[in-house]
Write a structure and sequence with these properties.
- Keywords: Membrane, Transmembrane, Transmembrane helix.
- Pfam families: DUF808 (PF05661).
- This is DUF808 domain-containing protein.
- It is a single chain.
- The chain has 10 helices and no strands.
- The longest helix has 43 residues.
- The chain is mainly α.
């Protein structure tokens, strides 16, 4: 019995060490992969505040929490198992699914641009009389979760690409860890942004020092402009990410000319004006591609097929 117990404890020790090593591998891989998703994460954070802008302050945090839960479901219940299955059995399909997502983001961004320029509006907006606030809130939350699904798919695809050589368990662990960390980080920041005016009001009224009260007044004045700026950044982000997904997808299926042409411009601008402007040139041309593609989709869906009327 003592010998059997020692053997059992030895086996448990080996399993524990193996599990610990696996956890370390997952954490390290998640760190490497997470850094690659920074651009899309920024886009996600910029897009989301627009879905609560203008609504009742009392509903802001509940709406963000609903979107957060939807985002976790997107990443952990839909994208994670789907990505693992596709990576195992049909990896060539991933690029086409991502391109469909890129087309959808381009459509969403172009529709917002066209509406801003005076085009026909589709669906209820805050400028319209809202007959059913509950239904309108559900519509906004559903729209946010749909957009999150595309951005989440891009985040998870980037992550999966970074750990493609790892075993299935490590890939699953990394995808789950990155998905949870990104979701909580993004929507935590969004919650802080949309409630910053309340913080400013509290400081303006309750701060003990004049510096605190002045800072509160500054926040109150700045927040409306910040939210408008974030809405614009979110629209540009949709077009940039959508166009970028299309460019990368075309290159992956053998049509590399457009991406190489834009990369050539990026390298030329970088050589003359520096890497930051070079990156902006690539992002700007990607957004332009997204705008053109999105405008075509808006025309086809709304004018040809009469959807949304």
């Amino acid at each position: 019995m003592p010998g059997g117990l020692v053997a059992l404890l030895d086996d448990v020790s080996i399993i524990a060490r193996t599990a610990s090593a696996s956890v370390d591998d997952i954490a390290a891989a998640a760190g490497r992969a997470g850094s690659k998703t920074a651009g899309v994460v920024i886009d996600d954070a910029a897009v989301t505040p627009s879905y609560v802008t203008g609504l009742s302050p009392a509903r802001e945090l509940p709406i963000i929490w609903k979107i957060t839960k939807g985002s976790l479901i997107n990443k952990l219940a839909i994208i994670l198992p789907g990505a693992l299955l596709l990576s195992e059995f049909l990896p060539q399909a991933i690029v086409f699914i991502l391109m469909m997502g890129g087309a959808y983001l381009s459509y969403e961004g172009a529709e917002k641009v066209l509406e801003y320029l005076g085009g026909e509006k589709h669906g209820k907006t805050l400028d319209d009389e809202i007959d059913d606030p509950v239904a309108f809130e559900k519509q906004r939350v559903a729209g946010a979760i749909r957009t999150d699904l595309i951005l989440s798919a891009e985040i998870m695809a980037i992550t999966l690409n970074e750990v493609a050589a790892e075993d299935l368990i490590t890939r699953a662990g990394v995808l789950a860890l990155v998905g949870i960390a990104v979701t909580l980080g993004v929507y935590g920041v969004v919650a802080l942004i949309v409630k910053m005016d309340d913080v400013g009001l509290h400081l303006a009224k309750e701060a003990a020092s004049s510096v605190g009260r002045k800072f509160g007044c500054f926040l109150l004045r700045a927040m409306p402009h910040l939210l408008v700026a974030l809405s614009a950044i979110g629209t540009v982000a949709m077009l940039w990410v959508g166009g970028g997904i299309i460019l990368h997808g075309l290159a992956d299926i053998g049509i590399s000319g457009p991406e190489h042409w834009i990369e050539g411009i990026e390298h030329g601008v970088s050589a003359i004006a520096g890497g930051a402007l070079g990156w902006l040139s690539f992002a700007g041309l990607s957004a332009l591609l997204g705008l053109v593609l999105g405008a075509v989709l808006v025309f086809v869906l709304h004018k040809v097929f009469r959807l949304g009327h």
